[in-house]
Amino acid sequence: SQQGEEDPQALSIQEGENATMNCSYKTSINNLQWYRQNSGRGLVHLILIRSNEREKHSGRLRVTLDTSKKSSSLLITASRAADTASYFCATDAFRGGADGLTFGKGTHLIIQP
Amino acid sequence: SQTIHQWPATLVQPVGSPLSLECTVEGTSNPNLYWYRQAAGRGLQLLFYSVGIGQISSEVPQNLSASRPQDRQFILSSKKLLLSDSGFYLCALTGASSYNEQFFGPGTRLTVL
């Protein structure tokens, strides 16, 4: 079953603006990750945040995690046309870590030049 | 560095025909390997994972099967394809990190007609 649910499903903004995507999940997690997928390509890992962390930064990316609300957000600052892609959150429950991730349906982000 | 190869890149098959998709990895030993399927415009669904040679776990019942004949080889098969098997198939591995960050291959686009 789909654990992570991203919203919005699609987001279109102007280059230079900030983009915020949200993810909600249902069960306890060990960590939450965000991935990016360019059209027709494999996924690329962006950032991982552990269940005991509340915020994490990587370059223009900022991820927050609220385990009490079972939600996470991904902020991309100063967006660029090259950021156009689909973004997925993924969780792994406390299942030992070996048995894969549960992905949401993704947010399709379009950056207009 | 880790590399994942998938072939073929694209495949068009008639309903009822057999299927064999191959995934090979380089740059790592004894990885955990995963097969995911992504339907059009959807998130990823975990199909199979393997923690070692000959060890396969299935997440969902289906007409697909997986095998791991070698440490760095993971094969997805079907004896008779269904229309619903169409999708984008992604092979992934987890590396040395204990937090389940996954590295994805380039994917195989399967269309069943």
Structure description:
The complex is a heterodimer of chains A (113) and B (113). Chain A has 113 residues and is mainly β. Chain A is built from no helices and eleven strands. The mean pLDDT of chain A is 89. In chain B, the strands form two sheets. In chain B, strands 2, 4, 5, 6, 9, 10 and 11 form a seven-stranded mixed β-sheet that branches. In chain B, 38% of the residues are buried. The mean pLDDT of chain B is 91. Classes of the chains: A mainly beta (113), B mainly beta (113). The A-B interface holds A 2, 4, 30-31, 33, 35, 40-45, 48, 50, 88, 90, 92, 97-106 and B 4, 32, 34, 36, 41-46, 49, 51, 57, 59, 88, 90, 92, 94, 98-107, 109.
Quick recap of the structure?
The complex is a heterodimer of chains A (113) and B (113). Chain A is built from no helices and 11 strands. With 113 residues, chain A is mainly β.
